[in-house]
Amino acid sequence: MSVTPPRHGHAFAAERPPDALQRYSEASRLTHWAVALAYVLLFCSGLALFHPFFFWLSGLFGSAALMRVLHPFIGVALAVLFFAYASRLWRENLLLPSDRRWLRGMLGYMTGRDELRVEGKYNAGQKLMYWSMIGFVAGLLATGLLLWRPYVAPAIPVDGRRLAAVLHAVFAFVMFVGIGVHVYAALWTRGSMRAMTQGWVTRRWARYHHPGWYERETAGEPPPDRRESA
Amino acid sequence: MALESLDVRRRSASETRAPDIRSRQEVAKLIDISRCIGCKACQAACMEWNDLREEVGATAGAYDNPADLTASSWTVMRFFEEELPERGLQWLIVKDGCLHCSDPGCLKACPAPGAIVQLSNGIVDFQQEACIGCGYCQAGCPFDVPRYSPKDDKAYKCTLCSDRVAVGLEPACIKTCPTQALSFGAKEDMRALADERVGELKERGYGQAQVYDPSGVGGTHVLYVMPHGDPALYRKPRDPSISPLVALWRSTFARTLGAVTMGAVFLAGFFHWMKVGPVDPDARPEGGEEKRS
Ligand code: SF4
Ligand code: SF4
After folding, report:
1. Which residues have any ligand 1 atom within 6 Å of their CB?
2. A12 in a domain, yes or no?
3. A103 touches chain B (CB under 8 A)
4. Is the pLDDT higher at A222 or at A220?
5. pLDDT confidence of A8, banded at 50, 70, 90?
6. What value of ipTM does the predicted structure carry?
7. Taking Cα atoms as reference points, which of B137, B154, B50, B45 lies closest to residue B95?
8. B57 touches chain A (CB under 8 A)
9. Helices A124-146 & A158-188, crossing angle to 10 degrees?
10. Burial classification of residue B284, based on how many CB atoms lie within 10 Å of its CB (0-12 exposed, 13-18 middle, 19 or more buried)
């Protein structure tokens, strides 16, 4: 009487249910994780350069001198991958009137009460994250390029390099906060991680978090009672 | 002076304080521009002692040779022709190189622990084995001194012959100067000597003469006697100090703020999870997910 399907119904590592919805394509997932990997490497090396307390992180790269050489190359790789990835998503991240409503109710969502109806594939929080990441990656790329020794830095006036260094550090820390929220939100909304690792979400997940998207994805399907019994 | 040359007073990218219980004898080099004849003996002596050889280059039609400091020219004579209102054409010869600041911007900016050290006698020394070639020291220096070697991608500059000073010798440039334009000794003594020379210059009609020991960087361990006074004539900043941008960027405040920000993100996530827990529509009763406010 006690052990019944509900527990298995959403067992976390379960194989893909036949009626799962595809949320992220394989190409998106691979690009996303390549960007994430580059970000981790950049963050560790940047932190080692920023604060002596974290200088030991340079050991992850073999030596500090090698780390200094690699950091800008990884940065350029991240920017290229990120913009390739982001350029395919901009349309779905345009802010809609319904997003303003969602943002007003965000506090309730964050404290675990119910979420306001989301129309798009992404909610307003995700959209704002998207646009701020575009800004920060561009800012970090631009300021980082100015500091790139030996290729670019020697041609930049010293005051330009000083300003670039300060802005680079500021951008990096604000971006860290953004990425922190992004990772946390993914862990917090169960099922999101699986969507980004395996690509699919359950119908209930889609109905709950992105009803507008769900309705568009499933439009034209036979009514649910017939599908579920099949 | 030997002991002071071995003690490290400050180390780049290091938070803890260096031992400084002993009183320290600071050294200084005095460059009296009024006595310099631009013979470049000091430049040659520097290369000899430090075993450096400059690439053969082309002259730009001036006596400056090489035209700028490089990774293997740690001191360079610069020649400036100036038309001065009262004195007419003057030839100003400036021995350029690191000034060994008491508050070195290069050291402040360097992210590699121990790549730049300040010895307790005031000498600022680069330790190339710890240098990672990032170029931050260049952004930190108010005098545009550190230079890179394209060969090893590491920063170099005048060491004030820290190796010679450590064993009681004077720097190679001092040793070789034929006109006593260069002197070396305790900083106090050099300061007194510089003031004396300025007094002499004033008697000879150089009313503007002054010592260059800029307080914006806490004073330097290379002093200039400038006969015409204005540092700008000698292409030295009038009032040098570490750029406020560098001071902000490498400050304990910014570093701490950065670390605290990161810690706050982790803590906020941790406590939010503990309070709210995950959102899991799949675990809700069937149909419950459609409920909307
Ligand atoms: S002159 Fe420049 S390189 Fe020399 S100690 Fe001062 S800041 Fe450092
Ligand atoms: S390049 Fe300059 S700032 Fe960078 S590690 Fe070397 S000495 Fe330090």
Report:
1. B 98-101, 104-106, 124, 141, 143, 145-146, 157
2. no
3. no
4. A220
5. very low
6. 0.91
7. B45
8. no
9. 150
10. middle
Long-range interactions of A59-63: CB distance < 8 A, separation 24+: none
With respect to residue A64, please indicate whether it lies within any of the assigned structural domains.
yes
Total tally of structural domains belonging to chain A: 1
Domain of A147? 21-217
pLDDT at B148: 95
Structure confidence by residue, pLDDT tens digits, A101-135: 888 888 888 886 677 788 889 999 999 999 999 99
Q: Kindly determine whether residue A162 and residue B144, on different chains, have CB atoms separated by under 8 Å.
A: no
Q: Taking CA atoms, what residue in A is nearest to B153?
A: A150
Suggest the residue from A12, A23, A68 to mutate for an interface test with chain B (most B CBs closer than 10 A). Answer: A68
In a domain, A93, yes or no: yes
CB within 8 A of B59, min separation 6: which ones?
A: B65, B67
Q: Cα(B63)–Cα(B65) distance, rounded to whole angstroms?
A: 6
Q: How many CB atoms lie within 10 A of CB A209?
A: 21
Angstrom distance (rounded) from CA A58 to CA A67: 6
CATH number of the domain residue A67 falls in: 1.20.950.20
A6 in a structural domain: no
